[in-house]
Write a structure and sequence with these properties.
With 155 residues, this protein is of the alpha+beta class. 35% of the residues lie in helices and 19% in strands. The chain has a 4-stranded antiparallel β-sheet. A hairpin with a 6-residue loop joins strand 2 and strand 3.
């Protein structure tokens, strides 16, 4: 995909939408110093250019009963397409998995999961993750506190 050419007004719109995706067009226009119609046109253009790909609700995992975040590094037994595809597809189906990346370096995957304490983590590990064929090794780290969380970077 080609990199979008954004001006400072586009960037201000994106920053505001990152902060509040439910902001009304009227309020957004006021905050970026545009009238409503040009603001609406710019938002639609950003959507059409796939700069804005979706609008989502960000949920509080603690309120949902999954207050703990675990980062898991996984190494697979083999590196053929079938193992990678099967692991990735199965991983994507697990509701505890918040993010998963294929990475370079010592491990093949970096996975972020939400769990309810060590008992919830053990259940996830034994009953879900380790049931996926092809895992050779994993290493886990419990996050103590989130210092920064953003969902997009606006240059």
């Amino acid at each position: 995909m080609k990199e979008a050419q954004l001006d400072e007004i586009d960037r201000r719109i994106l920053r505001e939408l990152c902060h509040d995706g439910r902001i009304s067009n009227q309020k957004l226009a006021e905050r970026v110093n545009l009238s409503p119609t040009p603001c609406w046109n710019r938002v639609r253009a950003l959507e059409n250019a796939q700069v804005i790909t979706e609008y989502v609700a960000v949920l509080d995992q603690r309120a949902l009963g999954f207050p703990d975040t675990v980062i898991i590094e996984v190494t697979l037994d083999h590196h053929d397409d079938e193992i990678f595809n099967n692991f990735g597809e199965t991983l994507a189906q697990l509701p505890e998995v918040m993010e998963a990346y294929i990475v370079t370096g010592e491990y093949d995957y970096l996975i972020k999961v939400a769990v309810a304490g060590t008992a919830g983590y053990e259940h996830f590990l034994r009953q879900k993750l380790y049931k996926i064929p092809g895992i050779r090794h994993s290493r886990s780290t419990f996050a103590l506190r989130c210092l920064k969380r953003v969902h997009s970077v606006v240059p």
